[in-house]
Design brief:
The protein is of the alpha/beta class and 253 residues long. It has helices at residues 16-27, 39-48, 62-75, 102-128, 150-169, 201-212, 224-230, 232-235, 238-248; strands at 7-11, 31-36, 53-56, 81-84, 132-137, 175-180, 220-221.
């Protein structure tokens, strides 16, 4: 994957991993467009990075995604990279009454249906470019779940599966399909920003960028801290890591 001269759309680009990627890719001379629901976060990020652009949109609304995709095509016709990063993570007590499943449905809509819908809406534009790429952000928890966040983990497992199928279907085209598999990173997702157990965001972004600069680019971008989760089944350590993770994370809120 060529890391320069691109027009890149990053959802959830106003904070956390999305902002970290946006800033590093912006430094490399790419036209970076960040998108999300929180205009203040987007404005703060673009103000700190002159030349970066932003667009607001609601990833939970199918009609809004179609309108947004048309806006992107009109304003950034050279778009050749989509990074599906936006996501939400919430604790769920499956033993408590759940009359409407509002949290679970919001997580599925944002984390799974949102990327699928946005990819479908923008794929015709991406396919027009000589070379393009789609990067879906899953999680180490796609491969070994944290029981406190069952729907989040399920959506990330589904994104992994969807990415495999998307890559296979696009294998004969000029669109590369990548998967970024983060570990527990110090962001405001699930109050991890101040947790000493979380990987510092700057270290994570630096390692990701180093991997992306290798040629050929790996289809899965897995930093060292994520390998224990990603390859837990292959290593024969799934049960042990599952028990340790869910004991260690019992106080996360």
């Amino acid at each position: 994957m060529n890391l320069t001269g691109n027009t890149i759309l990053i959802t959830g680009g106003g904070s956390g991993i999305g902002r970290g990627l946006a800033e590093e890719l912006h430094k490399l001379g790419n036209q970076v467009v960040i998108a999300g629901r929180r205009k203040q976060a987007l404005d703060e990020t673009t103000a700190a990075n002159p030349g970066m652009k932003s667009l607001t949109f609601d990833i939970e609304n199918p009609a809004a995604i179609r309108t947004f995709a048309a806006q992107v095509a009109a304003e950034f016709p050279a778009l050749n990279m989509l990074i599906n990063n936006a996501g939400i993570m919430r604790r769920e007590n499956l033993l408590a009454p759940q009359p409407d499943l509002a949290d679970a449905e919001a997580i599925v809509t944002t984390n799974l249906l949102g990327p699928i819908r946005l990819t479908a809406a923008l794929l015709p534009l991406l396919q027009k470019q000589p070379h393009s790429a789609i990067m879906n952000v899953s999680s180490g928890l796609a491969f070994l779940p944290m029981a406190l966040t069952p729907t989040y983990c399920a959506t990330k497992a589904a994104i992994h599966s969807y990415t495999l199928s998307l890559r296979h279907q696009l294998r004969a085209t000029g669109t590369e399909v990548l998967e970024l598999i983060p570990p527990y990173v110090a962001t405001h997702l699930m109050s991890g920003a101040d947790d000493p157990r979380a990987m510092p965001l700057d270290q994570f972004i630096a390692e990701v960028m180093a991997i992306l600069k290798t040629q050929p680019t790996p289809t899965e971008i897995v930093v060292e801290n994520a390998k224990g989760l990603r390859f837990s089944a292959e290593s024969g350590k799934f049960d042990a890591i599952f028990q340790r993770l869910n004991a260690d994370m019992s106080d996360v809120h």
